[in-house]
Design a protein that fits this description.
The complex is a heterodimer of chains A (405) and B (376). Chain A is mainly α and 405 residues long. Chain A is built from 20 helices and 2 strands. Chain A is 67% helix and 1% strand. Chain B has 18 helices and 5 strands. Classes of the chains: A mainly alpha (405), B mainly alpha (376).
Chain lengths: 405, 376
């Protein structure tokens, strides 16, 4: 970054710090509402800063977010967006603080077409992949077409970045937008690998582009890919050195958040992590000694987080409510506990593949043992407890509870 | 949880399943274990015991035919299914009504969840109410057929409850000598008829009974599938849709014929009492025919209704695997000729595909419990 401190990268005011603290401590529901409100702002630069602290939670929560032109425009560059303090021109990527100004410059270059594209996704959310794909393709093609002619707008000064930075950012973004159709095709099926032919097609197309463009596209793809090792292996020959850098960067940023507070998200995170871990352990880029070490350390971290989340959630979401109940729990309470038990089971099934089977057995034994003491205690019925046991540990364990109860 | 024992299944193997009678087709049991969804219970060939017919989840022709006692060997059934299995093991004969009654009793224990327990209790109450309603409707008809013009100035259905009772007693007293019975016996016959037709109800009743609701549900699902397939012209999906809708239409065709035949008797209470006097068990058996013909479709219809629109492709194949075949006995029952084996032949084309069962087992169990609740 040419300027040490842009206004976006500047320290937060006391008021902003207090707001960021409030956002960080908001409940899941409140956070989703806050994000929806931020998404509707014409200029969300300040809002983006407030969300920095909760980005890991947002990744897990995935609140439905309305399609907004700037977010859609930079979707193919998702993996290449850097915090302004971390961005250096020679390393590639785009500083977050530049995004809205670039989006405004694209809009100013083709206002009527932008209005038409915005009208096509009005009222739609990013969960509507068909709308995202349709409007996205139109927008990325338009942006690729106008990118070369863009000059730094007056607002660029507010970013604290230089004119040279602008050129570098536009060259990078324009290069990725030129190949956004192929990138999107791979991203759309990223959880299936993505399939090798789509990755090959993308990198064949990227061949004439600069290393920075290739790296940005690869980083975006790795962000969503279920098999990052395989993707890096395919991209490697057509992007020498870049695939290694992108993969190392991916590994550095790989910090799966496994929290017992949101079991469903935790289970999904662990399941996805497992898939990527297996792929990395089996792929040639993942077999390098330093990466093996990193993978092994990641495995241990996630295993521990998973066991802790399981143990904590079994107590707070099942035993706690059951022990605290003054009478028979109502249907809603039971439905919530059964949903929690299903998510615990899902987390445990994924977690066992990382190791630590004994820890899950111990937690299950403790929980089901407690269920036994609750039978006939005036709270949950024997049938309710048997069902929770069945969901957590299978029908045989539930039969034993019934026979003993 | 609910793992399938391939070794045990291989021991029993798959066999041809071309039932000649409805009893041979078996009765659908509302199991919640994924592997057992839509499985049917039937007497063994020697009538010495029971066996279960399970659709081969990999499609094709075969069905697993497993001795009832061996069920826990081939898979690990849910708690609810173990109870249901044990309770049905004690039954000497199976009919859709009996399986429904036993299954409701088990669901009421709460082992398939509170929603299924509440639905079972509600359905039991509704069946009781349907019996009383059928009896009431029969009495109203009897009043209409036995009163003079002067006595019938107020239509019976619009009269006060105490007046209806007086008029009903008079109608029963008038008809009794004509049928060579006492009024008490006529009242008992009416109760017997009401019990036999409670599930079917009386034609024209603005509150449709269970069987008529099932017919309407299947009709609605056929319409929805046809609409869906018109928008999703994938040839594979069309094949599954054709199998399901073809089998459903066949079942509806014969069920409607059986209902029409029964309605012809039910619309005239005086004639109906005569039929009942001659052969009460014969009439009772005939009244169960629509139930046999539509057996198994509840779960299939609820599978469709439960599925998210984007998951309907997978569920269509699951429905195709479970679509019941009609046995040749149906020709004796409704006097119709049809290519009854057509769904069976189409079923051979059902692709070997277990994708739809590859979801997390406990989530499929939760779904099956929802189906169980809705098809109570």
């Amino acid at each position: 970054m040419s300027a040490a401190a842009s206004d976006v990268g500047a320290p937060l005011s006391a008021e902003a710090r207090s707001l960021r603290h409030a956002v960080a401590n908001a409940s899941d529901g409140a956070l989703a509402r806050v994000v929806a409100m931020f998404d509707s702002l014409p200029d969300r630069r300040e809002a983006d800063r407030l969300l920095d602290a909760v980005r890991p939670r947002l990744r897990a929560l995935r609140p439905p977010r309305p399609i907004a032109m700037p977010r859609l425009l930079f979707l193919p560059l998702d993996g290449a967006i850097r915090h302004p303090r971390e961005w250096r021109r020679q390393d590639g990527g785009l500083p977050r603080s530049a995004l809205l100004v670039i989006a405004d410059a694209v809009r100013a270059a083709a206002p009527e077409e932008c209005v038409a594209i915005e009208a096509s996704f009005a009222g739609r959310s990013f969960a509507d992949l068909q709308s995202v794909a349709g409007a996205g393709r139109a927008l990325w093609r338009l942006a690729a077409r106008v990118a070369d002619g863009l000059a730094a707008p007056p607002a660029w000064g507010t970013t604290g970045l230089s004119a040279e930075d602008f050129k570098a950012c536009i060259a990078l973004a324009g290069g990725v937008w030129r190949h956004a159709d192929a990138l999107w095709a791979a991203l759309a099926v990223a959880r299936e690998g993505p399939p090798e032919p789509l990755v090959r097609e993308l990198f064949n197309g990227l061949a004439p582009e600069t290393p920075q463009v290739k790296q940005a596209a690869l980083e975006t793809l790795l962000l969503k890919a279920a098999q990052p090792g395989t993707v890096a292996a395919i991209a490697g020959p057509s992007a020498p050195g870049i695939a290694d850098r992108a993969l190392d960067r991916w590994l550095e940023g790989c910090t799966p958040e496994v929290s017992g507070a949101d079991l469903s998200a935790a289970a999904e995170v662990v399941e996805e992590f497992l898939e990527t871990l297996v792929d990395l352990e089996e792929s040639s880029p993942g077999r390098r000694a330093d990466r093996r070490q990193k993978l092994s350390s990641l495995r241990r971290e996630v295993d521990l987080a998973c066991r802790n989340a399981f143990n904590e959630a079994a107590t707070t979401k099942l035993l706690g409510p059951l022990l605290a109940a003054k009478g028979p729990p109502d249907n809603r309470a039971i439905a919530e506990m059964e949903a929690a038990a299903r998510n615990l089971r899902r987390l445990e099934q994924a977690g066992r593949q990382l190791g630590g089977g004994g820890a899950y057995d111990a937690t299950l034994s403790r929980v089901i043992g407690q269920f036994g003491t609750l039978c006939g205690a005036g709270g949950a019925s024997l049938a309710d407890l048997a069902r929770l046991t069945e969901i957590l540990a299978g029908p045989e364990a539930a039969m034993r509870l019934l026979d003993g109860g | 949880m609910n793992e399938i024992s391939r070794d045990a299944l291989d021991r029993y193997g798959t066999g041809a399943y071309q039932p000649a009678t409805f009893l041979e087709r078996g009765v659908a049991v509302p199991f919640t274990t994924p592997f057992l969804l839509g499985a049917r219970i039937r007497p063994t060939e020697s009538r010495a015991g029971l066996e279960v017919v399970i659709a081969n989840p990999s499609g094709g022709r075969g069905h697993y035919i497993v001795p009832w006692a061996a069920l826990p060997e081939v898979c690990s059934p849910t708690l609810h299914d173990r109870r249901l299995w044990k309770r049905l093991s004690d039954e000497p004969a199976v009919t859709p009504a009996l399986v429904r009654e036993v299954a409701r009793a088990i669901a009421a224990e709460g082992l398939a969840g509170r929603e299924a327990a509440a639905a079972a209790a509600k359905a039991k109450g509704e069946d009781g109410a349907a019996r009383m309603r059928a009896n009431f409707m029969l009495l109203l008809d009897l009043i209409r057929r036995t009163e003079t013009r002067e006595e019938a100035t107020v239509p019976p259905q619009l009269d006060k409850p105490d007046r209806i009772e007086v008029r009903a007693r008079r109608a029963v007293a008038r008809i009794a000598p004509r049928l060579g019975a006492t009024p008490e016996i006529i009242a008992a016959w009416l109760e017997g008829i009401a019990t036999a037709i409670a599930g079917l109800g009386v034609p024209g009743d603005p509150i449709p009974a269970r069987t008529r609701v099932t017919v309407a549900t299947i009709e609605a699902v056929i319409g929805e599938i046809e609409l869906w397939i018109a928008r999703n012209p994938d040839p594979g999906d069309q094949q599954a849709a054709a199998l399901v809708t073809d089998a459903a239409k066949m079942s509806l065709q014969v069920a409607r014929a059986a209902i029409k035949e029964l309605d012809g008797s039910i619309t005239d209470t005086v004639s109906l009492l005569g039929i009942w006097k001659q052969d009460p068990s014969g009439f009772s058996r005939r009244a169960t025919r629509p139930d046999w013909m539509l057996d198994g479709w509840h779960i299939i219809a609820e599978l469709w209704r439960d599925a998210d629109p984007e998951a309907r492709r997978g569920v269509l194949w699951e429905m195709a695997l479970l679509a019941p075949v009609l046995p040749r006995e149906v020709e004796d029952w409704v006097g119709m000729q049809e290519d009854w084996d057509r769904p069976l032949r189409l079923r051979r084309l059902v692709r070997a595909n277990e994708d739809w069962r590859s979801g997390r087992t406990f989530e499929v169990v939760a779904r099956n419990e929802r189906l169980r609740a809705r098809a109570a």
